[in-house]
Write a sequence for this structure.
């Protein structure tokens, strides 16, 4: 058996898989975000990961008898990232972890990019550490190591401290000795690297007592959870695309070429906020875009207008409405938008609202808007030279048949829904099977664990309708983009007026 655990941003999930890969049990625990988190700052108390580890292990391993526990072969850990945590020589956190959502190190990212000769985003590890050195020098000096989420938990279980380096292509994104020297960072604070699927160490006696995991169990590095989700959906060949749905939507395409450097048309990809990174499967690339409010847009509409209804009832409303929502288009920019606009002032809009529209049509328009946003990102990818073959849909929205069909119809891509709904845990299973020698490669392991439950094919009879509405969707943002900052300014002025005595 393989024990898999994923520490997401807001919840931790764990599962036990048998020798054939069947899930024998799952458990999850909510994770509390630190009260300071707002705007540019996003932090979390790393001790919460340890508490969640113990609770999930207790719920999944506690009921197992001694004989069953003895059949456990490995514990695989993945987690949110890039997230960075300073620890002391005993592995104790010296401060909150700065999560992948944190954007405070924008100046340091520019500084590091100039010094190293390649682009480093503010979310990456080195800019955060540079920020810490500049603004919290005592903390920087006191730190024994800087580690990420899965590295921290694996280290506390084994006493071995490592840096996950997924493959050689990630050197610039994580760090290497040349980068540390160029930025005058203390190399002793950066643990040695280990690849995904590498054995970090074995659970020591104290950890076994504290967290309820069998002593001596091998602990396998699962790395960043977005990589685990690519493996869990078998997004390991060019053209395959992981559609990670939820509050927001992450579109991750496996591409054969680096769009940032491949062709002149690739400049559009770079300017539209698509992130180009190495793929875990060499020599491919991971091209990603993030939509700010997808599932959140529907949750917002439900909470404001239909608070007593279940999501099942909401989905039924969308099914009753006509495709195209009778000419009603919604922009889902309720918290600004990231890809492909990167516009913090962008706002939500219902366009075409008339007396004949009802709540069913409005629900349908909101659900269709998320698919239009996906098509917007996919269009940028394909205009830049990539090819999107299919969507591998995950997350809560993927549990809705009507939403999957809408996505397929509007994007023109088949939507494949996995039988096992937690891609990060499925990815950990793939990593575990590879680590134990049951599969020859991570790609082979990914193919083993991904089993489609349903495939939603695009309905060609609606292609012309959605082509026209997509043009309207895109043009609506283009024409209104200059007005959104004025609306935000007016809102801020109104709030300031209310605060006056």
């Amino acid at each position: 058996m393989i024990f898999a655990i994923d520490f997401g941003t807001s919840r931790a999930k764990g599962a036990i898989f048998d020798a054939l890969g069947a899930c024998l049990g799952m458990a999850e625990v909510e994770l509390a975000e630190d009260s300071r988190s707002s705007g540019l700052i996003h932090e979390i108390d790393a001790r919460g990961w340890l508490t969640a580890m113990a609770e999930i292990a207790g719920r999944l391993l506690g009921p197992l008898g001694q004989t069953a526990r003895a059949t456990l072969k490995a514990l695989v850990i993945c987690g949110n990232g890039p997230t960075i945590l300073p620890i002391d020589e005993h592995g104790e956190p010296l401060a909150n972890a700065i999560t992948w959502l944190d954007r405070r190190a924008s100046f340091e990212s520019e500084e590091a990019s100039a010094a190293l000769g390649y682009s480093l985003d503010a979310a990456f590890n080195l800019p955060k550490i540079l920020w810490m050195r500049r603004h919290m020098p005592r903390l920087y000096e006191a730190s024994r190591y800087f580690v990420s989420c899965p590295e921290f938990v694996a280290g506390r279980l084994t006493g071995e401290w490592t840096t996950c380096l997924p493959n050689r292509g990630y050197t610039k994104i994580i760090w290497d000795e040349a980068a540390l020297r160029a930025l005058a960072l203390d190399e002793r604070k950066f643990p040695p690297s280990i690849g995904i699927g590498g054995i970090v160490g074995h659970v020591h006696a104290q950890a076994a007592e504290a967290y309820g995991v069998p002593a001596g169990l091998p602990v396998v590095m699962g790395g960043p959870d977005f990589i685990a989700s690519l493996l869990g959906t078998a997004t390991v060949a060019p053209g395959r695309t992981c559609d990670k749905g939820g509050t927001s939507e992450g579109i991750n395409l496996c591409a054969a070429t680096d769009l940032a450097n491949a062709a002149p048309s690739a400049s559009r990809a770079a300017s539209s906020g698509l992130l180009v990174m190495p793929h875990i499967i060499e020599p491919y690339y991971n091209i990603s875009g993030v939509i700010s409010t997808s599932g959140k847009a529907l949750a917002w509409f439900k909470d404001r207008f239909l608070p007593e209804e279940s999501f099942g009832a909401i989905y039924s409303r969308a099914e009753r409405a006509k495709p195209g929502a009778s000419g009603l288009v919604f922009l889902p920019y309720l918290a600004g938008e990231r890809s492909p606009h990167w516009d913090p002032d962008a706002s939500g809009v219902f366009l075409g609202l008339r007396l004949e529209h009802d709540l069913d049509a409005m629900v349908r328009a909101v659900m269709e808007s998320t698919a239009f946003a996906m098509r917007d990102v996919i269009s940028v990818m394909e205009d830049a030279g990539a090819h999107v073959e299919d969507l591998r849909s995950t997350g809560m929205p993927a549990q809705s048949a009507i939403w999957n069909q809408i996505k397929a119809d509007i994007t023109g891509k088949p939507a494949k829904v996995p039988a096992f709904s937690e891609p990060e845990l499925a990815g950990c299973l793939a990593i575990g099977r590879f680590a134990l020698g049951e599969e020859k490669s991570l790609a082979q392991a990914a193919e083993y664990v991904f089993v489609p439950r349903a495939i939603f094919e695009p309905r060609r009879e609606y292609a012309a309708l959605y082509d026209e509405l997509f043009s309207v969707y895109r043009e609506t943002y283009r024409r209104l983009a200059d007005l959104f900052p004025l609306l935000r300014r007016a809102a801020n002025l109104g709030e300031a007026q209310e605060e006056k005595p």
